[in-house]
Specification:
- The chain is mostly helical and 341 residues long.
- It contains 13 helices and 2 strands; from the N terminus they run H-H-H-H-H-E-E-H-H-H-H-H-H-H-H.
- It has a two-stranded antiparallel sheet.
- The longest helix is centred in the middle third of the chain and has 26 residues, at 178-203.
- It is elongated, with a radius of gyration of 55 Å.
- The relative contact order is 0.02.
Length: 341
């Protein structure tokens, strides 16, 4: 105590600050450093103020103080919520909840959904979570919804069950006679046959020349017998026409068996006919029936749909057209009406 009093007596008159520190306990080191820095900064400021340059700088500065217009005190306004707000501390259980805390409690990022309706400014706070009406064609959809639709549906189901229990929906096939059963069976077979015919017609729909009405008429009356029958139906004598046709188409009396040239030609013709293989439809090879053919055509069209959509000529069309032709995109400006030159 005597030594401490002696030190204080020696430093008190000159205003010398005494700092206590311990490098062993690491106490007071930072305080001593801060005190030394403040003293050094204060010394440098005092040296600058004693210089000649300070007067030139102070002459450029002007601090204006507004004059009071009256005696009314106008202190700074601080809201009560701000004044009483405590500093946020993540370890405080009574802290105010941030959106980050709500997200962590709601499952984390990707699971938590931000509640934007709580920030709505409504005349009544209970209106924030009201269902927004759905408008369709200028009308509110809620006006056309029956609130008792569930009860009415349950009542209809109970009535339907009651009618079913009374036998209203019972099958009356037992009351049908043999004639009705035969008619139903025939109708079922006719429908099945019509479906098969339609499928075969779609499968065999190939590019074939279509005959006009005149061509069909000429082909039907192409034989002499048909022409003679046509004359007789018209009430004309067809005997002369028939005799003319027989005279033209009559073979020579000489037998073909006696002529070796005709026999050789006939034999070579039969050999040539047998040499020609039977032409088969390659689109139906490997398919059992018309149903399999229809399924195969459906899959083929599904595979070609994308090709047709892109305007390709086929599977081998890999041509890439010019997406931006130079004569359409060079020298054009988009602002205003300067889109062409």
């Amino acid at each position: 105590p005597a030594e401490r009093a002696l030190v204080e007596q020696a430093t008190a008159p000159d205003g010398i600050d005494v700092a206590q520190l311990s490098t062993y306990l690491d106490q007071g080191v930072m305080e001593t450093r801060n005190l030394a820095c403040e003293k050094l900064l204060q010394q440098r400021v005092e040296m600058k103020l004693r210089g000649q340059q300070v007067s030139g700088v102070l002459n450029k500065l002007n601090v204006a103080q507004p004059a009071a217009r009256d005696d009314v005190a106008r202190p700074a306004f601080i809201p009560a919520a701000v004044a009483t707000r405590r500093k946020y501390d993540a370890q405080d259980p009574a802290r105010r909840l941030l959106e980050r805390d709500l997200e962590a409690a709601g499952g984390g990022a990707g699971v938590y959904s931000v509640d934007l309706k709580k920030h709505y400014l409504m005349a009544d706070a209970q209106w924030k979570y009201d269902v927004i009406p759905e408008i369709m064609d200028g009308k509110n959809v809620a006006d056309f919804v029956d609130p008792d639709i569930e009860e009415k549906l349950a009542e209809l189901e109970r009535e339907d069950e009651l009618l079913a229990a009374q036998g209203l929906y019972a099958d009356d096939d037992a009351s049908d006679d043999d004639e009705d059963k035969r008619i139903r069976d025939m109708a079922r077979r006719i429908r099945a046959r019509k479906q098969i015919i339609a499928q075969e017609a779609r499968i065999s729909n190939v590019n074939r020349p279509t005959l006009t009405a005149r061509q069909k008429a000429l082909s039907s009356a192409s034989t002499p017998a048909d022409f003679v029958d046509h004359l007789r139906k018209l009430g004309l004598d067809g005997d002369q026409a028939q005799a003319t046709a027989e005279r033209i188409t009559r073979k020579r009396q000489r037998s073909e068996s006696r002529d070796p040239a005709l026999a050789l030609a006939k034999r070579s013709g039969s050999l040539a006919a047998r040499a020609v293989s039977v032409q088969r439809d390659r689109s139906q090879m490997g398919l059992k029936n018309a149903r399999h053919k229809a399924a195969s055509d459906k899959r083929r069209m599904a595979a070609l749909r994308e090709i047709y959509f892109k305007g390709k000529t086929g599977e081998s069309d890999h041509k890439i057209l010019n997406k931006m032709p130079k004569h359409l995109f060079t020298g054009k400006r988009s602002n205003g009406t300067n889109d062409r030159r």
